[in-house]
Write a structure and sequence with these properties.
alpha+beta; 10 helices; flat; five-stranded mixed β-sheet; Actin, Chain A, domain 4; about 35% helix
Length: about 325
């Protein structure tokens, strides 16, 4: 039987929704390839474990940067492997797919995503903007006249959108997001403490003791890295306030684009946002204290979605289940 698939193709994670089954896959957007033959060795969770540990003959890469496809062939191969995992493509059955894209992508970038999905062997591909899907997945009434602001903090981008009457009224975006926070932690430890760490360690620090607000500090932990002066392994203790300092520029940039969107919002919709607040989604919503920091600096109440990381995929699922075709950006191949 024909299947209907929703894909949230994120810079950090790919989440897939299957009509009638719900979320069937949630794995990192990482691919391990043979450097010489460009063959796929692993995708998702297995490939992410290889980052920073591979020999010269193996490359563990992320085919998406800043929310868009950076390596077309690898992205298509990754999608194909993910669809095989969930048995979405059969001998006589090809699925219909709805896939999300950042609202601010160019026409060329949108067509690259569309083509990459078609290359996996699916039947049809429709596109929907990430902010709209995230809003639907979070339970917002996007077709009503009441204005709603959604802030989707992903791995490669943070998108801010004001939605009303089934459309996006105003939006802004920035590459200040989860991956940039990790890079900021790596840079801070290198410059201030002369300790070199990898992406995985930086992400672990962000998730375990990372904090965007003093009220949510979570103590300290010990990390292991390489002393850049001696070239020898080293250990050190680091606390939440240091991680917050490392990420401060990135967090301030997120607040800046939120304020920018608020300033360009029509007065009537601004009143709705101040009454009902901002909805925070995306994997970055899990960062302790981000909700409080945005609320204090933007002057608006902030609520975190119930399932931030899966909001976009859940939204695509609702669009499919309820036949909300007016929200899908249908484009011919």
């Amino acid at each position: 039987m024909a299947k209907h698939i929703g894909i949230d193709l994120g810079t950090a994670n790919t989440v897939i929704y299957m009509k009638g089954k719900g979320i069937v896959l949630n794995e990192p957007s990482v691919v391990a390839t043979d450097a010489s033959h460009r063959t796929i060795l692993a995708v998702g969770d297995e490939a992410k474990k290889m980052i920073g540990k591979t020999p010269g003959s193996i490359c563990a890469i992320n085919p998406l940067k800043g929310g868009v496809i950076a390596d077309y062939d690898v992205a298509a191969d990754m999608l194909c492997e993910f669809l095989k995992k969930i048995r979405a493509i059969g001998i006589i059955s090809r699925p219909d797919v709805i896939i999300s894209t950042p609202y601010t992508v160019t026409e060329v970038e949108r067509r690259a995503v569309e083509s990459a999905v078609y290359d996996t062997g699916v039947k049809t591909v429709d596109l929907v903007s990430e902010p709209m899907a995230a809003a639907v997945g979070s339970g917002l009434d996007v077709t009503g006249s009441r204005g709603a602001m959604i802030v989707d903090v992903g791995g490669g981008t943070t998108e801010v959108a004001v939605i009303s009457l089934g459309g996006i009224v105003t939006s802004s975006s920035t590459v200040a997001a989860g991956n940039m926070m990790d890079d900021s932690i790596i840079r801070y430890l290198k410059q201030e403490h002369h300790i070199l760490i990898g992406d995985s360690t930086a992400e672990m620090l962000k998730k375990t003791i990372g904090s965007a607000h003093p009220s949510t500090d979570r103590g300290e932990t010990e990390i292991r890295g390489l002393n850049r002066r001696s070239g020898l392994p080293a250990t050190m203790s680091i606390n939440s306030s240091q991680i917050r300092l490392a990420m401060s520029d990135c967090i301030n940039e997120i607040v800046r684009v939120i304020r920018l969107a608020l300033e360009s919002t029509p007065p009537e919709l601004s009143a709705d946002i101040f009454d009902y607040g901002i909805l925070l989604t995306g994997g970055g919503a899990y960062l302790a204290g981000l909700q409080q920091t945005i609320s204090e600096k933007a002057g608006v109440r902030v609520t975190v979605a119930k399932r931030p990381l899966e909001s976009v995929a859940m939204g695509i699922g609702k669009i499919m289940e309820r036949g909300m075709t007016e929200l899908v950006d249908v484009r011919p191949r």
